[in-house]
Design brief:
binds 2-acetamido-2-deoxy-beta-D-glucopyranose; nine-stranded mixed beta sheet; two-stranded antiparallel sheet; alpha/beta; 17 strands
Protein backbone atom coordinates (compact mmCIF):
# COMPACT_ATOMS: atom_id res chain seq x y z
CA UNK A 1 0.00 0.00 0.00
CA UNK A 2 1.33 3.38 -1.00
CA UNK A 3 1.91 5.63 1.97
CA UNK A 4 2.17 9.37 2.30
CA UNK A 5 -1.49 10.28 2.24
CA UNK A 6 -1.86 11.26 -1.41
CA UNK A 7 -5.60 11.25 -1.00
CA UNK A 8 -7.11 14.18 0.79
CA UNK A 9 -10.44 13.39 2.21
CA UNK A 10 -13.38 15.69 2.47
CA UNK A 11 -16.76 14.77 3.70
CA UNK A 12 -19.84 15.86 1.87
CA UNK A 13 -23.22 16.13 3.40
CA UNK A 14 -25.98 14.58 1.37
CA UNK A 15 -28.91 16.20 3.05
CA UNK A 16 -30.56 16.96 -0.29
CA UNK A 17 -30.85 13.31 -1.33
CA UNK A 18 -30.78 11.71 2.08
CA UNK A 19 -34.39 10.59 1.70
CA UNK A 20 -33.26 7.96 -0.79
CA UNK A 21 -31.10 6.16 1.73
CA UNK A 22 -32.01 3.66 4.40
CA UNK A 23 -31.45 4.85 7.94
CA UNK A 24 -28.39 2.62 8.31
CA UNK A 25 -26.34 4.78 5.96
CA UNK A 26 -24.38 7.61 7.49
CA UNK A 27 -25.28 10.24 4.90
CA UNK A 28 -21.62 11.20 4.72
CA UNK A 29 -19.24 9.95 2.09
CA UNK A 30 -15.59 10.35 1.24
CA UNK A 31 -14.60 12.06 -1.97
CA UNK A 32 -11.39 12.96 -3.77
CA UNK A 33 -10.38 16.58 -3.57
CA UNK A 34 -9.74 17.98 -7.01
CA UNK A 35 -10.71 20.85 -9.25
CA UNK A 36 -11.46 19.48 -12.74
CA UNK A 37 -10.53 22.68 -14.51
CA UNK A 38 -7.16 22.83 -12.74
CA UNK A 39 -6.00 19.22 -12.49
CA UNK A 40 -8.31 16.36 -13.32
CA UNK A 41 -5.92 13.95 -11.63
CA UNK A 42 -5.02 15.77 -8.40
CA UNK A 43 -4.97 13.27 -5.52
CA UNK A 44 -5.64 10.45 -7.96
CA UNK A 45 -5.63 7.16 -6.02
CA UNK A 46 -3.41 4.26 -7.02
CA UNK A 47 -4.99 0.83 -7.31
CA UNK A 48 -3.69 -0.02 -3.83
CA UNK A 49 -5.42 3.06 -2.41
CA UNK A 50 -8.87 1.82 -3.46
CA UNK A 51 -11.40 2.05 -2.00
CA UNK A 52 -11.24 5.53 -0.46
CA UNK A 53 -13.09 4.27 2.61
CA UNK A 54 -12.80 0.76 3.99
CA UNK A 55 -16.58 0.61 4.34
CA UNK A 56 -16.93 0.67 0.52
CA UNK A 57 -17.00 -2.60 -1.44
CA UNK A 58 -13.86 -4.23 -2.82
CA UNK A 59 -11.75 -1.88 -4.92
CA UNK A 60 -14.62 0.55 -5.48
CA UNK A 61 -13.68 3.99 -6.81
CA UNK A 62 -16.63 5.58 -5.07
CA UNK A 63 -15.96 9.26 -4.45
CA UNK A 64 -13.03 9.41 -6.88
CA UNK A 65 -15.06 11.65 -9.22
CA UNK A 66 -17.09 13.15 -6.37
CA UNK A 67 -19.68 11.62 -4.08
CA UNK A 68 -22.63 12.47 -6.35
CA UNK A 69 -20.96 11.68 -9.67
CA UNK A 70 -23.01 9.62 -12.15
CA UNK A 71 -20.61 9.51 -15.10
CA UNK A 72 -17.83 7.43 -13.59
CA UNK A 73 -14.98 6.61 -15.95
CA UNK A 74 -16.55 8.70 -18.72
CA UNK A 75 -15.13 11.66 -16.78
CA UNK A 76 -11.77 10.72 -18.31
CA UNK A 77 -13.12 12.02 -21.62
CA UNK A 78 -12.49 15.75 -22.03
CA UNK A 79 -12.41 18.23 -24.89
CA UNK A 80 -8.63 17.73 -24.93
CA UNK A 81 -8.84 13.93 -25.21
CA UNK A 82 -11.41 14.28 -27.99
CA UNK A 83 -9.23 16.72 -29.92
CA UNK A 84 -6.26 14.37 -29.51
CA UNK A 85 -8.38 11.42 -30.65
CA UNK A 86 -9.41 13.32 -33.76
CA UNK A 87 -5.74 13.42 -34.82
CA UNK A 88 -5.92 9.67 -35.43
CA UNK A 89 -8.30 10.19 -38.37
CA UNK A 90 -6.05 9.81 -41.41
CA UNK A 91 -8.16 8.46 -44.25
CA UNK A 92 -11.83 9.02 -43.53
CA UNK A 93 -12.64 5.30 -43.65
CA UNK A 94 -15.62 4.38 -41.44
CA UNK A 95 -16.03 1.00 -39.74
CA UNK A 96 -19.38 0.38 -38.04
CA UNK A 97 -18.76 -1.97 -35.12
CA UNK A 98 -22.30 -3.16 -34.41
CA UNK A 99 -23.66 -6.61 -35.08
CA UNK A 100 -27.15 -6.82 -36.51
CA UNK A 101 -29.66 -6.33 -33.71
CA UNK A 102 -30.91 -9.91 -34.06
CA UNK A 103 -27.43 -11.48 -33.76
CA UNK A 104 -26.64 -13.75 -31.98
CA UNK A 105 -29.83 -15.58 -32.85
CA UNK A 106 -30.99 -17.27 -30.75
CA UNK A 107 -29.59 -15.11 -27.95
CA UNK A 108 -26.58 -16.52 -26.11
CA UNK A 109 -28.67 -16.65 -22.92
CA UNK A 110 -31.94 -18.59 -22.73
CA UNK A 111 -33.54 -16.00 -20.43
CA UNK A 112 -33.27 -13.30 -23.10
CA UNK A 113 -35.93 -13.29 -25.77
CA UNK A 114 -34.97 -12.57 -29.39
CA UNK A 115 -35.63 -9.21 -31.01
CA UNK A 116 -39.33 -8.73 -31.76
CA UNK A 117 -39.71 -6.57 -34.87
CA UNK A 118 -43.23 -5.51 -35.80
CA UNK A 119 -44.35 -3.62 -38.89
CA UNK A 120 -47.24 -1.25 -38.60
CA UNK A 121 -49.05 -0.14 -41.76
CA UNK A 122 -50.45 3.37 -41.48
CA UNK A 123 -52.42 5.62 -43.85
CA UNK A 124 -49.89 6.23 -46.61
CA UNK A 125 -46.75 5.34 -44.63
CA UNK A 126 -45.22 2.57 -42.54
CA UNK A 127 -43.90 2.42 -38.98
CA UNK A 128 -41.99 -0.28 -37.26
CA UNK A 129 -41.83 -1.24 -33.60
CA UNK A 130 -38.90 -2.86 -31.85
CA UNK A 131 -39.24 -4.85 -28.67
CA UNK A 132 -35.74 -5.76 -27.67
CA UNK A 133 -33.59 -6.89 -24.82
CA UNK A 134 -30.54 -4.62 -24.86
CA UNK A 135 -28.36 -7.52 -23.67
CA UNK A 136 -28.52 -9.58 -26.87
CA UNK A 137 -26.55 -7.92 -29.65
CA UNK A 138 -23.72 -5.36 -29.48
CA UNK A 139 -24.37 -3.54 -26.22
CA UNK A 140 -23.12 -0.82 -23.90
CA UNK A 141 -23.71 -1.77 -20.27
CA UNK A 142 -24.81 1.27 -18.29
CA UNK A 143 -24.31 1.81 -14.58
CA UNK A 144 -27.70 0.41 -13.55
CA UNK A 145 -26.87 -2.94 -15.12
CA UNK A 146 -24.44 -4.41 -12.63
CA UNK A 147 -24.22 -3.62 -8.92
CA UNK A 148 -21.89 -5.22 -6.46
CA UNK A 149 -23.40 -8.16 -4.65
CA UNK A 150 -21.96 -10.81 -2.40
CA UNK A 151 -24.57 -13.52 -2.92
CA UNK A 152 -26.59 -12.39 -5.96
CA UNK A 153 -29.37 -11.38 -3.60
CA UNK A 154 -30.95 -7.95 -4.14
CA UNK A 155 -30.36 -7.30 -0.46
CA UNK A 156 -26.63 -7.09 -1.11
CA UNK A 157 -26.80 -4.95 -4.29
CA UNK A 158 -24.66 -1.79 -4.19
CA UNK A 159 -24.60 0.47 -7.24
CA UNK A 160 -21.92 2.95 -8.32
CA UNK A 161 -21.22 5.62 -5.71
CA UNK A 162 -23.95 4.07 -3.55
CA UNK A 163 -26.44 6.28 -5.37
CA UNK A 164 -29.30 3.76 -5.51
CA UNK A 165 -30.67 2.37 -2.30
CA UNK A 166 -33.49 0.11 -3.46
CA UNK A 167 -33.82 -2.35 -6.32
CA UNK A 168 -37.36 -1.02 -6.66
CA UNK A 169 -35.82 2.27 -7.87
CA UNK A 170 -34.32 0.34 -10.80
CA UNK A 171 -37.03 -2.14 -11.77
CA UNK A 172 -40.16 -0.77 -10.12
CA UNK A 173 -43.08 0.98 -11.82
CA UNK A 174 -41.62 4.39 -10.99
CA UNK A 175 -37.87 4.00 -11.56
CA UNK A 176 -35.61 6.86 -10.57
CA UNK A 177 -33.33 8.35 -13.22
CA UNK A 178 -30.11 7.96 -11.23
CA UNK A 179 -27.28 6.30 -13.18
CA UNK A 180 -29.60 5.69 -16.15
CA UNK A 181 -28.16 5.16 -19.62
CA UNK A 182 -29.34 8.69 -20.49
CA UNK A 183 -26.24 9.93 -18.64
CA UNK A 184 -23.92 8.25 -21.18
CA UNK A 185 -26.24 9.20 -24.05
CA UNK A 186 -26.22 12.87 -23.08
CA UNK A 187 -22.45 12.85 -22.54
CA UNK A 188 -21.78 11.59 -26.08
CA UNK A 189 -18.82 9.25 -26.20
CA UNK A 190 -15.84 10.15 -28.37
CA UNK A 191 -12.56 8.37 -27.74
CA UNK A 192 -9.24 7.22 -28.99
CA UNK A 193 -9.70 3.45 -28.96
CA UNK A 194 -6.91 0.91 -28.73
CA UNK A 195 -7.38 -2.56 -30.20
CA UNK A 196 -5.61 -5.55 -28.69
CA UNK A 197 -5.99 -8.24 -31.31
CA UNK A 198 -5.67 -11.43 -29.30
CA UNK A 199 -7.12 -13.56 -32.11
CA UNK A 200 -4.77 -12.06 -34.68
CA UNK A 201 -1.81 -12.56 -32.36
CA UNK A 202 -2.72 -16.20 -31.81
CA UNK A 203 -2.94 -16.75 -35.57
CA UNK A 204 0.33 -14.97 -36.28
CA UNK A 205 2.19 -16.98 -33.66
CA UNK A 206 0.69 -20.32 -34.76
CA UNK A 207 -1.27 -20.77 -31.55
CA UNK A 208 -4.79 -22.12 -31.38
CA UNK A 209 -7.64 -21.44 -29.00
CA UNK A 210 -11.35 -22.20 -28.65
CA UNK A 211 -13.40 -19.05 -28.00
CA UNK A 212 -16.19 -21.18 -26.52
CA UNK A 213 -14.06 -22.20 -23.55
CA UNK A 214 -13.02 -20.31 -20.44
CA UNK A 215 -9.71 -19.27 -22.05
CA UNK A 216 -8.29 -16.46 -19.90
CA UNK A 217 -6.64 -13.54 -21.67
CA UNK A 218 -4.17 -12.32 -19.07
CA UNK A 219 -2.64 -8.88 -18.60
CA UNK A 220 0.74 -10.46 -19.40
CA UNK A 221 -0.66 -11.59 -22.73
CA UNK A 222 -2.03 -8.12 -23.43
CA UNK A 223 1.47 -6.76 -22.83
CA UNK A 224 2.82 -9.33 -25.30
CA UNK A 225 0.17 -8.33 -27.83
CA UNK A 226 1.21 -4.71 -27.37
CA UNK A 227 4.78 -5.71 -28.29
CA UNK A 228 3.55 -7.76 -31.24
CA UNK A 229 1.55 -4.73 -32.45
CA UNK A 230 4.66 -2.53 -32.06
CA UNK A 231 2.98 -0.34 -29.48
CA UNK A 232 5.15 1.87 -27.27
CA UNK A 233 5.34 0.88 -23.60
CA UNK A 234 3.49 4.07 -22.65
CA UNK A 235 0.69 3.40 -25.14
CA UNK A 236 -2.22 4.37 -22.91
CA UNK A 237 -3.61 7.87 -22.56
CA UNK A 238 -6.32 8.93 -20.10
CA UNK A 239 -9.71 8.61 -21.75
CA UNK A 240 -8.72 5.74 -24.06
CA UNK A 241 -11.16 2.94 -24.72
CA UNK A 242 -9.60 -0.53 -24.52
CA UNK A 243 -10.94 -3.11 -26.97
CA UNK A 244 -9.95 -6.76 -27.05
CA UNK A 245 -10.61 -8.91 -30.12
CA UNK A 246 -11.00 -12.29 -28.47
CA UNK A 247 -12.12 -14.15 -31.60
CA UNK A 248 -15.54 -15.03 -30.13
CA UNK A 249 -17.56 -13.27 -32.87
CA UNK A 250 -15.26 -14.70 -35.55
CA UNK A 251 -15.89 -18.20 -34.24
CA UNK A 252 -19.63 -17.52 -33.96
CA UNK A 253 -19.72 -16.49 -37.63
CA UNK A 254 -18.43 -19.95 -38.62
CA UNK A 255 -21.39 -21.72 -36.98
CA UNK A 256 -24.21 -23.09 -39.12
CA UNK A 257 -27.87 -22.65 -38.15
CA UNK A 258 -27.99 -25.90 -36.20
CA UNK A 259 -24.92 -24.96 -34.22
CA UNK A 260 -26.28 -21.47 -33.56
CA UNK A 261 -29.42 -23.02 -32.14
CA UNK A 262 -27.24 -24.88 -29.68
CA UNK A 263 -25.26 -21.72 -28.87
CA UNK A 264 -26.86 -21.00 -25.49
CA UNK A 265 -25.46 -24.34 -24.42
CA UNK A 266 -22.25 -24.32 -26.45
CA UNK A 267 -21.21 -20.77 -25.66
CA UNK A 268 -20.99 -21.32 -21.95
CA UNK A 269 -18.24 -20.70 -20.95
CA UNK A 270 -16.49 -18.18 -23.21
CA UNK A 271 -13.08 -16.62 -23.74
CA UNK A 272 -12.35 -13.20 -22.20
CA UNK A 273 -10.11 -11.10 -20.03
CA UNK A 274 -9.00 -12.97 -16.96
CA UNK A 275 -11.24 -12.16 -13.99
CA UNK A 276 -8.53 -11.36 -11.45
CA UNK A 277 -7.01 -8.67 -9.31
CA UNK A 278 -4.08 -8.33 -11.67
CA UNK A 279 -6.56 -7.51 -14.44
CA UNK A 280 -8.19 -4.89 -12.23
CA UNK A 281 -4.82 -3.32 -11.45
CA UNK A 282 -3.73 -3.34 -15.10
CA UNK A 283 -6.95 -1.64 -16.23
CA UNK A 284 -7.11 0.89 -13.38
CA UNK A 285 -3.58 2.13 -14.10
CA UNK A 286 -4.57 3.00 -17.71
CA UNK A 287 -7.29 5.55 -16.77
CA UNK A 288 -9.63 4.11 -19.40
CA UNK A 289 -13.05 5.58 -20.15
CA UNK A 290 -14.64 2.33 -21.35
CA UNK A 291 -13.62 -1.23 -22.10
CA UNK A 292 -15.02 -3.51 -24.76
CA UNK A 293 -14.63 -6.76 -26.63
CA UNK A 294 -16.16 -9.00 -29.28
CA UNK A 295 -17.34 -11.54 -26.70
CA UNK A 296 -20.37 -11.79 -24.39
CA UNK A 297 -18.90 -10.06 -21.31
CA UNK A 298 -15.39 -8.64 -21.96
CA UNK A 299 -14.28 -10.84 -19.07
CA UNK A 300 -14.00 -14.58 -19.21
CA UNK A 301 -16.83 -16.82 -18.08
CA UNK A 302 -16.96 -18.08 -15.41
CA UNK A 303 -16.56 -14.51 -14.22
CA UNK A 304 -15.72 -14.70 -10.55
CA UNK A 305 -12.69 -14.33 -8.33
CA UNK A 306 -11.89 -13.42 -4.76
CA UNK A 307 -11.15 -9.86 -3.65
CA UNK A 308 -10.62 -9.31 0.06
CA UNK A 309 -12.69 -12.35 0.93
CA UNK A 310 -15.62 -11.54 -1.35
CA UNK A 311 -16.51 -13.23 -4.61
CA UNK A 312 -16.42 -10.52 -7.28
CA UNK A 313 -16.40 -10.16 -11.05
CA UNK A 314 -14.82 -7.57 -13.31
CA UNK A 315 -18.41 -6.50 -14.01
CA UNK A 316 -19.01 -5.72 -10.33
CA UNK A 317 -15.83 -3.72 -9.88
CA UNK A 318 -15.85 -1.95 -13.26
CA UNK A 319 -19.54 -1.01 -13.33
CA UNK A 320 -20.54 -0.93 -9.66
CA UNK A 321 -17.14 0.17 -8.41
CA UNK A 322 -15.61 2.47 -11.00
CA UNK A 323 -18.63 3.56 -13.01
CA UNK A 324 -16.83 2.10 -16.01
CA UNK A 325 -19.11 0.72 -18.69
CA UNK A 326 -18.41 -2.45 -20.66
CA UNK A 327 -19.21 -2.86 -24.36
CA UNK A 328 -19.88 -6.38 -25.55
CA UNK A 329 -20.33 -8.28 -28.84
CA UNK A 330 -18.44 -5.65 -30.82
CA UNK A 331 -17.96 -6.52 -34.48
CA UNK A 332 -14.24 -6.01 -35.14
CA UNK A 333 -13.37 -8.19 -38.13
CA UNK A 334 -12.82 -5.66 -40.96
CA UNK A 335 -11.45 -3.07 -38.55
CA UNK A 336 -8.79 -5.45 -37.21
CA UNK A 337 -7.77 -6.39 -40.74
CA UNK A 338 -7.51 -2.72 -41.78
CA UNK A 339 -5.45 -1.84 -38.70
CA UNK A 340 -2.98 -4.66 -39.40
CA UNK A 341 -2.63 -3.65 -43.03
CA UNK A 342 -1.68 -0.18 -41.85
CA UNK A 343 0.47 -1.19 -38.89
CA UNK A 344 -1.94 0.70 -36.64
CA UNK A 345 -3.41 -0.08 -33.22
CA UNK A 346 -5.36 3.02 -32.28
CA UNK A 347 -8.23 4.85 -33.92
CA UNK A 348 -10.99 7.39 -33.50
CA UNK A 349 -14.29 6.03 -32.25
CA UNK A 350 -17.71 7.31 -31.24
CA UNK A 351 -20.59 5.69 -29.39
CA UNK A 352 -24.06 7.20 -29.16
CA UNK A 353 -26.30 5.32 -26.77
CA UNK A 354 -30.08 5.48 -26.94
CA UNK A 355 -31.33 8.35 -24.82
CA UNK A 356 -33.57 6.16 -22.66
CA UNK A 357 -34.25 7.72 -19.27
CA UNK A 358 -33.55 5.21 -16.47
CA UNK A 359 -32.18 2.78 -19.08
CA UNK A 360 -29.93 -0.11 -18.15
CA UNK A 361 -28.01 -0.60 -21.39
CA UNK A 362 -28.13 0.34 -25.06
CA UNK A 363 -26.91 -0.58 -28.48
CA UNK A 364 -23.74 1.56 -28.61
CA UNK A 365 -24.03 2.66 -32.25
CA UNK A 366 -20.27 2.28 -32.27
CA UNK A 367 -18.33 3.73 -35.18
CA UNK A 368 -14.58 3.67 -35.79
CA UNK A 369 -12.93 6.01 -38.27
CA UNK A 370 -9.41 5.47 -39.61
C1 LIG B 1 -15.44 5.32 6.62
O1 LIG B 1 -15.88 4.03 6.96
C2 LIG B 1 -16.07 3.81 8.33
C3 LIG B 1 -16.47 2.37 8.52
O2 LIG B 1 -15.48 1.54 8.02
C4 LIG B 1 -17.11 4.76 8.88
O3 LIG B 1 -17.23 4.57 10.28
C5 LIG B 1 -16.70 6.17 8.58
O4 LIG B 1 -17.75 7.04 8.94
C6 LIG B 1 -16.41 6.34 7.11
N1 LIG B 1 -15.94 7.68 6.90
C7 LIG B 1 -16.58 8.54 6.14
C8 LIG B 1 -15.97 9.89 6.09
O5 LIG B 1 -17.55 8.25 5.52
C1 LIG C 1 -27.60 -12.63 1.01
O1 LIG C 1 -27.05 -11.81 2.01
C2 LIG C 1 -28.00 -10.97 2.63
C3 LIG C 1 -27.27 -10.02 3.55
O2 LIG C 1 -26.41 -10.73 4.38
C4 LIG C 1 -29.05 -11.80 3.34
O3 LIG C 1 -30.03 -10.94 3.91
C5 LIG C 1 -29.72 -12.72 2.33
O4 LIG C 1 -30.61 -13.57 2.98
C6 LIG C 1 -28.69 -13.52 1.57
N1 LIG C 1 -29.39 -14.20 0.50
C7 LIG C 1 -29.09 -15.43 0.14
C8 LIG C 1 -29.87 -15.99 -1.00
O5 LIG C 1 -28.19 -16.08 0.67
C1 LIG D 1 3.84 -20.31 -38.30
O1 LIG D 1 3.72 -21.37 -39.22
C2 LIG D 1 4.11 -21.04 -40.53
C3 LIG D 1 3.79 -22.21 -41.46
O2 LIG D 1 4.19 -23.40 -40.89
C4 LIG D 1 5.59 -20.67 -40.56
O3 LIG D 1 5.98 -20.28 -41.85
C5 LIG D 1 5.83 -19.52 -39.59
O4 LIG D 1 7.20 -19.24 -39.48
C6 LIG D 1 5.29 -19.85 -38.21
N1 LIG D 1 5.35 -18.64 -37.38
C7 LIG D 1 5.77 -18.64 -36.14
C8 LIG D 1 5.77 -17.32 -35.45
O5 LIG D 1 6.12 -19.66 -35.57
C1 LIG E 1 -23.75 -28.02 -38.95
O1 LIG E 1 -22.48 -28.43 -38.51
C2 LIG E 1 -22.48 -29.69 -37.87
C3 LIG E 1 -21.06 -29.97 -37.43
O2 LIG E 1 -20.77 -29.23 -36.29
C4 LIG E 1 -22.94 -30.77 -38.83
O3 LIG E 1 -23.00 -31.99 -38.15
C5 LIG E 1 -24.29 -30.41 -39.37
O4 LIG E 1 -24.64 -31.33 -40.38
C6 LIG E 1 -24.30 -29.02 -39.95
N1 LIG E 1 -25.64 -28.68 -40.30
C7 LIG E 1 -25.97 -28.14 -41.47
C8 LIG E 1 -27.41 -27.82 -41.68
O5 LIG E 1 -25.15 -27.88 -42.30
Amino acid sequence: MKTGGAIKIIVSSLASIAFAYPATRSGKRVEREFVPTVDLYANWPSYDELPLNSSYPSKAAWGVWGADDELGALNHITEDTIMAASQTIKEGKAFPLNLRLDVPNPPANFARKPLNHLFLPQDGYTDDVLVMNTQISTQFDGLRHFPYSTNNSVFTYQWYNDLIANYEDVIGPKPTETLGIQMAAEKGIVVRAVLFDFAGWQDATNQTFDAFTDRNITPDELDKIADWQNMPSDWSKPGDMLIIRTGWVRQYMTLNATERNLLPVQSWPWIGMEASERSLRWVWEKKLSVVGADNPAFEVSTMSFDVDGHTRSLHQVFIGGWGQSIVEFLYLEELAQALHERGRWNFFMTMQNLNVVSGIASPPNALAIL
